[in-house]
Request: fold
Amino acid sequence: MEYTALYWLVNRVAEGNALVLSLVAAVQFVPMLVLSRPVGRAVGRMSRHRTLLITQFAQMAVSVLLAVPLLIFGWASVWWIGATALLLGCVHVVDSPARQMFMKDLVGIERLRRAVGTYSTAVGGARIVGPAAAGFLIAGIGEGWVFLLNAVSYLAVVFSLNYVRRVRGDSIGGATVTGQRSSGGARLTRIPQAIRPALLLTLLLGGFAYQFQITGPLMVVTVLHDDSVTYGLIGMCTAVGAIVGSVVSARRSAPTTGEYVTWSTAFGVMALFAAMATNSVWFGAAMAGVGMALSLFTTTVVVFIQHRATDSEQGPALAAYNAAYMGFIPPGAVVVGAIAEYLGVRWGIALPSVALLVAAGYAAIKLRTTPTTRPEEDAEASTDLLARNVHEAL
Reply:
């Protein structure tokens, strides 16, 4: 609910200015780009359980900071929203790697993909209820109450974390990184060679192609001429697709080197389909496809990284992933916002998607012609993998 209300509020306060919306979106992800290296290294040596408890209370506090001025004074400004978005970004730079490593602490590497898929399904369910509820609540009682309700919702996560600790014992979520300390953080020179192509596609997808927090409300309001309820329902469609992707991912085995190329290609195709939408039904259907492809891609890459990285490499490798996926959203948001402002919203969706498809094609060719550490992966990394993976998913 929070993100739906946040971006809708910015869109309202800024009167539909795409550049302002993109700058506020960018501010939130600056900490991921700047701080991912030291934070990724530190989280690997900390108790993930304790870290997650702290981040839940911090996110609750940020939601309250957004709610109070609206509810008490009826006031909101772009600079205040941007400042709270920056605080939220600082929390997320700690929360993301801690959450990813905590999942492995709970289930082990053998069941990690199924666990990530199940977790993504639960998150997708929340993203169905959240945006739809936010759309109706914004129309009925305003953004302030949405932020306040979101703050209360973090208590459920806190109770769940405490329950896990009681059931599984004090060892769950403790620091597990062993071996030589890594100082690499998000630097590519400190992560396994096999992970680097995945990080490149992650950067293009997360930083540029998936900027629907900017293009989504603009598409709904300025192109399709709909309201906040429709915007919430579009978010629900995206979440439904993400759930389908999570279920498919949970049924699959350990990811191969070329599988993430398949899902990045599918994402680019569905995003282009969304850019061509002429009505809300079309746009919602396309966003469902985008959500499915995004879920399959991110789950595949996260599990692939944890399969390939040693314990001492996991903190830096996951920090590199988070920096690629979220850290480049600030420059990407500015670029996409400028494209949307001066060329049109459709081009703001289409041009980054084309760039992603070109990069995916290049990666597929490289994986087909470059030997891998395991011969069977070399075969599956070819361009034939696209048809095979889609067939298995269906």
Q: What stands out?
A: The chain is about 80% helix and 0% strand. Residues 116 and 303 are 8 Å apart (CA to CA). Residues 2-168+186-393 form a domain with the Growth Hormone; Chain: A; fold (CATH 1.20.1250.20).
